[in-house]
What does this fold into?
Amino acid sequence: MVRINPSILAADFANLERDIARISTADFVHVDVMDNHFVPNLTFGLQMVQRLQEVSARPLDVHLMIDDVDRWAPEYARSGASSVTFHAEATEQPVELARALRALGARAGIALKPGTDPEPYLAHLHEFDQVLVMTVEPGFGGQGFMHSTMPTVTRVREAITAGATDVWLQVDGGIDLHSITVARDAGADTFVAGSAVFRADDPTAQVELLRAAATGHRP
Ligand code: DX5
Ligand code: ZN
It folds into this structure.
């Protein structure tokens, strides 16, 4: 099954409720939390995400690009986010943190920057609901898709298949109507797209075009 999660990093920050309503067929609303420390950019914090949750008809897929995730990630789960993804590079104890998120009722995701080796995490895949392989360096929307990350996607897919676990394999960064098929062929099933969705005249139609491209069907 394919999931399309538009990133509101590319939406109009003065009109987020309106823009979330413009992606009504999305599976999740992808929310990029940045602290200007883990990445050199600053976006939303906990209060903002809580409010977005209240106005969104779709569940939130929170992507934490922040330090100190052991302290903060559970707060996002407590605030009602359906999915909370933290970066592997930001914690010494990813399995313990994933267990804490699940105990709070959230899906637990682990994200890998383009240069991060997936191997240390593959033996623990059953502890996670989602692996996010970044297809750009995290921090900014509108960057070009990094083909060099596809071997990581393929390796994680192999491990998911070998472990017969139901882990979603997400890609994020530079996803458009072409790169989505490249990532799909490498093994991804969950796609974040910011610019490709919100720069379109009709974001809802664009979500369905991306879904069709990923599934190989016409909308
Ligand atoms: C980048 C963010 C992405 C970003 C994707 O650090 O994690 O979610 O919004 O934007 P596009 O699709 O424009 O690359
Ligand atoms: Zn993201």
Notes: The longest helix spans residues 150-163.
